[in-house]
């Protein structure tokens, strides 16, 4: 995690379409404990919403339900309860990344995950094509996807979720059953 968020890597560089896409996609999987690429391609701009707790701290949450491996019925109210909280004053804030990503999307399509432009101007409003990401893009998180930076050997979709669950468990946020 430290290597991913260090300034030495371009993986999460928020001033490029690819870096911003990588960061937001990773953080959605990590903070919301998503099961890899399941249902990612079907997400739309309306899938997530910004809200605020009583102290004024903002967070992103998934507001629309979806069918997944363990929940085959959307009438049971199984929308994830995960929240991606802001880290005020931190340049790596996932809420700020998400909001920036959403502001740079192509407004002519409703897909949340859009293909980055090959050539872009940082000051421009749109950094993404009028085309959703293909199914194969999400498969890149398996194997050596991040190793092109020379800093990280392997990260898989499963390890992202496992790391999130381990962090929550170590923080005492899971109830132990006897």
Concise overview:
The protein has five helices and five strands. It has 178 residues and is an alpha+beta fold. InterPro entries: MAVS (IPR052787).
- Please indicate the count of domains: 1
Amount of beta strand:
5-15%
Q: Give the helix tally.
A: 5
Largest sheet: 3 strands, antiparallel
- Report helical residue fraction: 25-40%
Radius of gyration: 16 Å
Total beta-strand segments: 5
Return the string of H and E elements.
HHEEEHEEHH
Low-confidence stretches: 69-73, 142-149
Beginning-to-end CA distance, first to last residue: 32 Å
Mean pLDDT over the residues: 76
Strand order of the largest sheet: 1-2-3
Secondary-structure-based class equals alpha+beta
The multimeric state of the shown protein is: single chain
Large-scale geometry? globular
């Amino acid at each position: 995690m430290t290597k991913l968020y260090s300034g030495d890597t371009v993986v999460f560089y928020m001033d490029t379409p690819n870096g911003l896409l990588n960061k937001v996609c990773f953080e959605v999987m990590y903070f919301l404990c998503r099961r890899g690429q399941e249902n990612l391609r079907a997400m739309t701009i309306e899938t997530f919403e910004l809200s605020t707790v009583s102290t004024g701290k903002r967070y992103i949450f998934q507001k629309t339900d979806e069918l997944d491996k363990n929940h085959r019925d959307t009438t049971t109210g199984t929308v994830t309860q995960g929240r991606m909280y802001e880290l005020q004053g931190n340049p790596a804030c996932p809420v700020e990344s998400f909001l920036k990503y959403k502001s740079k999307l192509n407004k002519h399509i409703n897909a949340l995950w859009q293909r980055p432009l090959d050539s872009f101007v940082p000051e421009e409003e749109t950094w993404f094509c009028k085309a959703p990401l293909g199914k194969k893009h999400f498969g890149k998180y398996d194997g050596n996807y991040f190793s092109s930076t020379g800093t990280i050997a392997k990260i898989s979709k499963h390890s992202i979720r496992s790391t999130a669950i381990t962090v929550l468990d170590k923080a005492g946020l899971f109830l132990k059953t006897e």
